[in-house]
Amino acid sequence: MILHDFALAPNPRRVRMFLAEKRIMVPRVQVDIREGAQFAEDFRRRNPWSTVPVLELDDGCCIAESVAICRYFEERHPEPTLFGRDAREKARIEMWNRRAELDGYVPLADAVRNRLARFADRAVTGLPSGFPQIPAVAARGLERYRLFLERLDRRLAERRFLAGERFSIADITAFVTVEFANRIDERIPEGHRHLARWHG
Amino acid sequence: MILHDFALAPNPRRVRMFLAEKRIMVPRVQVDIREGAQFAEDFRRRNPWSTVPVLELDDGCCIAESVAICRYFEERHPEPTLFGRDAREKARIEMWNRRAELDGYVPLADAVRNRLARFADRAVTGLPSGFPQIPAVAARGLERYRLFLERLDRRLAERRFLAGERFSIADITAFVTVEFANRIDERIPEGHRHLARWHG
Hints:
2 copies of one chain form a homodimer. The first copy, chain A, has 200 residues and is an alpha+beta fold. Chain A has helices at residues 10-22, 41-46, 66-76, 87-113, 135-158, 169-180, 193-199, and strands at residues 2-5, 28-30, 54-56, 62-64. The first copy, chain A, is built from 7 helices and 4 strands. In chain A, helix 1 (10-22) runs parallel beside helix 3 (66-76), helix 4 (87-113) runs antiparallel to helix 5 (135-158) and helix 5 (135-158) crosses helix 7.
């Protein structure tokens, strides 16, 4: 088993945090996406969608997408649970993970990719070129991300973790999003004290 | 148990298709999002993020987000499975469901909301106003959606269903996306015959 990883990218970090919580060690290789290694033919055979991370099993079966890889490990190593124990908890964690991803991570990634010079002609993840940056997308992404932080702060006023009293994959997604925002010098605003406590 | 539903919206449809496959009947109420009912106080108590669908359990616990609701029912009624049986199948289904959602549904929803007159000042889901449409977002969303259809057609050339030989939630997400595209008169292109076979 090999994890195709890249130390500087946010989505692989979700998997690394997940594995660390579970105390699972997996051999890793680095796919340097800054050099375009995700578009090389040998990588595209593993993941035609040209994204990291990818988990390659011993028979060559490849699982792309951070949350899919996490789910694989959750099934193989259920403790400590990060996706929830019963129907209700699993559903609540899925709900919060989706909110963190769709209303936090996705808008922030829009802001990053439509702003940093490095992504000038490839503002869409997994596509090598032909998608120029749209400044209005960067601005809207940032506005939505800030709104997400307000909602996060309100939620964390009433619960220790995002989905309740137990740390879960939803916290990992939200944490990685907040860290990713450093790339565009966006910090947790003053006054979001519940969020600051949770971020630690 | 009550499902807060809206017959004309794509995300509630994912849940309805899921329940139909499982042959589960759930009492439903309609939340008319065209009239802004998702922003009314009584609905926001159930889901402060102002989206449908929401599943309200008998003790008042509310689960928002279509996939979270589906997962609740998968745990309670495992057969027929729509999220997969073992670690590998679960991971592969999650991967394809994410691809369908993040590379299909999300770009298409961007195209719809940034184009139809009805969403003039609320181009972001779950927010009542203050987000004007950005024509460049509509155009990029549509371009990404068409690229997604090409990838879908290639995938369905080699497999009966998106995640393999078994119908799964990934097919539901992709199907609802293709249907949603009708709103902007976007059809399956001629020549995508594998996609056309799958769509039926």
